[in-house]
Design a protein that fits this description.
Elements (H helix, E strand, L loop, with lengths): L3 H13 L5 E2 L2 E2 H7 L9 H9 L18 H5 L3 H17 L12 H12 L12 H11 L13 H15 L22 H8 L11 E3 L4 E6 L5 E8 L4 E4 L8 E3 L2 E8 L2 E6 L27 E2 L6 H12 L6 E4 L2 E9 L13 E6 L8 E7 L5 E3 L4 H8 L1 H16 L19 E7 L19 H9 L1 H4 L8 E4 L6 H7 L1 E2 L11 E7 L8 E6 L8 E4 L1 H7 L3 E3 L5 E3 L1
Helix pairs in contact: 3-5, 11-12, 12-16
């Protein structure tokens, strides 16, 4: 099975019990024997439930095995909650287009965790009495491990134990720690990237002195000195204390050592506190760009979208403000009309490579009438962010991907300190997971890094990273033009600087694979490696994410002493 259409066909085949039929390459009888109760399925829900409850020891050797959940995970979740989750999964399957590829990294355990977080009070288990039904089975099995009979989220040891239990259930490391404002963020690669995205970005909800933020950790407050430095006060801002941020500009930040400090107002007084003490806002901070279209005769030409960067909104605004009421403008002496502007007309998995779609009638001279544009700010470096294993295989192929993963893993093992990764990296790694990106400049690796990481992507690999042709197929999700630079002032300036991807890769420069540490939660599918154990645990070790070993064709073996070998 390769697509959701294949999956729906399999569901129908099983319900009809067609003799001699196959599910993918597996005989129907084998599937029926491996998944108890699936032969009685009359609906997608029945089908999913049977696959979901399949014993871990039974395998159909088909994609259907991905619908199973670990028995340990099932044992701690209430039946009512399970049914709600299964209805959601069944509805999702029924609504997917037949042509959409089945995700090879599909993981029911992770989807269950996300469902619980979204529907049952997120990260916290406080207020457990009100939601006891969800965790009845959890208490039955694990309550004795906690001093209070339940996890106290204000107790560090309880939090660590809960993280460990959930990690065991889902088969990968899980963190309850909320993210702070430190470091880069998607499409904002600088060391102040998270600040730029969630605070400085003019499209965010942030308002100086108005928007409320909270402290993630207890922190001393600091005062600004006449010499533009900061000095410590006797005031402590505690966990969950509220304050406002006084300025959104990076120019008003103060750097001391390797730490950045933000200006805040706390209880009516002005202070500075470090980034690590500020709880990062959610991605909901950036909303759809909805400009004033009162001057347009046909406002439906514009399709609202959520910009990943202010420049995307600025270009859209250019084609609104610099065109006539009927969307007309002139290019190279010929009259044109915008017929479509904004959000790409595509549905599917992942973010489109097409950041902004502009269609015109007729086509601009020398360009296509449908321009699916990958937009990058002048200082942007990342072309592919938070890659999944599936996406990495699309770009690099499994043979090359295997060489990269095993080479990087061996470099970690050969590091002067395995936990710090100083061997794969030049500096000291302070993150518990390592993710893969594609960027337009060569990352600085350490002396043990494999030579393949110092080689740029081939033109074919770079073309896929830029365009997403394989990922999105014959849809508007792929990009056919590229724009990187300062905000254009006229429609002519913009169109003249558009670069086509086809037959033009030499003008776009080289791309490289970038491995980067991250402590950001919710990146289970993107991380290639993760650290198992406490930082100071002599038995701690780096693990290659099973999602990545599977797609790269890497085998894992373990001896009686627990030593792991990948090949």
């Amino acid at each position: 099975m390769e697509t959701y259409g294949d999956l729906k066909k399999a569901i129908n085949t099983i319900s009809l019990k067609q003799k001699g039929a196959k599910i993918g390459n597996v005989a129907l009888d084998v599937v029926l024997g491996a998944i108890p109760g699936i032969g009685a399925a009359k609906s997608t829900f029945d089908f999913v439930k049977a696959a979901f409850l399949k014993p871990d020891t039974k395998k159909s050797n088909s994609w259907l095995d991905k619908l199973d959940i670990d028995d340990e995970m099932s044992s701690i979740v209430d039946d009512t909650v399970e049914n709600g989750f299964l209805k959601m999964v069944a509805k999702t399957i029924d609504s997917e287009t037949d042509t959409k590829p089945l995700e090879q990294d599909f993981n029911m355990n992770s989807k269950m965790v996300t469902y619980l977080k979204n529907n049952y009070s997120g990260r916290t288990v406080s207020g457990i009495k009100e939601q006891k039904s969800v965790f009845d089975k959890f208490f039955t099995k694990f309550a004795y491990k906690f001093d209070k009979g339940y996890p106290d989220m204000n107790n560090d040891q309880d939090v660590l134990l809960l993280e460990s239990l959930i990690s065991e259930a889902i088969g990968e490391r899980y963190s309850l720690e909320e993210a702070n404002m430190v470091g880069p963020s998607t499409n904002y690669p600088s060391v102040t990237g998270t600040w730029e995205k969630y605070i400085e970005n003019p499209l965010s909800k942030h308002e100086d002195g108005e928007t409320i933020y909270t402290s993630i950790k207890s922190s001393p407050a600091w005062l600004k000195t006449p010499s533009n430095d900061i000095e410590k006060t006797d005031i402590t801002i505690n966990v969950n204390d509220e304050f406002t941020i006084s300025s959104r500009s990076t120019k008003d930040l103060i750097k001391r050592g390797n730490s950045y400090y933000a200006p805040i107002n706390y209880k009516g007084e002005e202070y500075y506190i470090p980034f690590w003490a500020i709880l990062k806002p959610t991605g909901k901070n950036v909303e759809k760009f909805e400009p004033n279209l009162d001057s347009k005769n046909n406002p439906s030409i514009y399709h609202p979208f959520t910009p990943g960067h202010p420049q995307e909104a600025n270009v859209a605004l250019l084609f609104i403000e610099k065109t006539s009421p009927d969307w007309g403008f002139e290019y190279k002496g010929k009259p044109l009309k915008v017929t479509y502007l904004g959000d790409p007309n595509v549905k599917g998995t992942g973010y489109p490579k097409n950041d902004l779609q502009i269609n015109t009638d007729p086509a601009p001279g020398g360009l296509d009438s449908s321009m699916r544009i990958s937009l990058k700010a002048d200082n942007a470096t990342y072309v592919e962010n938070w890659m999944t294993s599936t996406r990495a295989e699309q770009i690099l192929g499994n043979t090359k991907l295997k060489k990269i993963i095993l080479g990087a893993y061996n470099a970690l093992l050969n590091s002067t300190s395995i936990r710090s990764g100083k061997g794969l990296f030049k500096g000291t790694l302070k993150s518990y997971q390592i993710c893969m990106f594609i960027k337009d400049r060569q990352p600085p690796y350490g002396s043990e890094a494999p030579s393949i990481l110092s080689e740029p992507l081939s033109k074919d690999e770079a073309y896929e990273a830029y365009t997403g042709d394989k990922k999105f197929g014959d849809t508007d999700g792929s990009a056919n033009y590229f724009y990187k630079g300062k905000n254009p002032q006229t429609t002519t300036d913009f169109l003249q600087d558009l670069k086509p991807f086809k037959n033009n890769m030499s003008e776009l420069g080289d791309l490289w694979v970038s491995l980067r540490g991250s402590n950001e939660s919710g990146k289970g599918r993107s991380r290639v490696f993760y650290w198992e154990g406490k930082d100071d645990d002599p038995n701690g070790k780096w693990i290659i994410n099973p999602l990545w070993t599977e797609i790269a064709g890497i085998t894992k073996s373990e001896d009686k002493e627990g030593n792991i070998k990948y090949s």
